[in-house]
Amino acid sequence: MIPSTPDADAERFMAVALEEARQAAQRGEVPVGAVIVRHGEIIARAGNRKEEHRDPTAHAEVLAIREAAAACANWRLEDVELYVTLEPCVMCCGAIIAARIPRVYYACSDEKYGGISLFAMTADQRLNHQVDARRGLLEQRCRQLLEAFFSTRRAEHHPLPYIHTGP
């Protein structure tokens, strides 16, 4: 088991993931960013690139895992931590488990697609690897970015203002 990262360092790494998410939003991608840290150093960072690559697997976590595996010359990432601005989906949880990543910090829960909160994938004892998943680092800042992105998207696709007609 890897030692827990001190809070100040964990927040710093999540802030880098948040910057990756901001860059993804500027590219028109859903603003999710990920950072992988090994021995206190960032070895991989990525933002979503599904639209750019026209690839449904080009989530920030998967791209960062690929980069980290290349940097370590090993698909087993047993001595790293992953920081991501949104709870990993089922696909990303599968990649995290397959890569043997021991700890994930995520800022916001994903009530629609969350592989941790909806399916408890990272704690499933039937699997050959479990993950220490921790929620809440920079949650408000990450959630604000997501909400602003989707609010803008809805306004672009539905230019008429919503008119409340109920009581």
UniProtKB/TrEMBL annotation:
Keyword line: Hydrolase, Metal-binding, tRNA processing, Zinc
GO molecular function: tRNA-specific adenosine-34 deaminase activity; zinc ion binding
Cofactor: Zn(2+)
EC nos: 3.5.4.33
Catalytic activity reported: adenosine(34) in tRNA + H2O + H(+) = inosine(34) in tRNA + NH4(+)
Keyword Zinc part of the UniProt annotation: yes
Cofactor note: Binds 1 zinc ion per subunit.
Top-rank taxon: Bacteria
InterPro entries on file: APOBEC/CMP_deaminase_Zn-bd, CMP_dCMP_dom, Cytidine_deaminase-like, tRNA_aden_deaminase
SUPFAM superfamilies: Cytidine deaminase-like
PROSITE patterns for the chain: CYT_DCMP_DEAMINASES_1 (PS00903), CYT_DCMP_DEAMINASES_2 (PS51747)
Record-listed Zn(2+) binding positions: H59, C89, C92
GO biological process: tRNA wobble adenosine to inosine editing
Transmembrane stretches, start-end: none
Residues in CMP/dCMP-type deaminase domain copies: 8-118
Subunit field text: Homodimer.
NCBIfam families given in the database record: PRK10860.1
Similarity annotation: Belongs to the cytidine and deoxycytidylate deaminase family. ADAT2 subfamily.
Function, in words: Catalyzes the deamination of adenosine to inosine at the wobble position 34 of tRNA(Arg2).
PANTHER family linked: CYTOSINE DEAMINASE FAMILY MEMBER, TRNA-SPECIFIC ADENOSINE DEAMINASE
Protein name: tRNA-specific adenosine deaminase
Gene: tadA
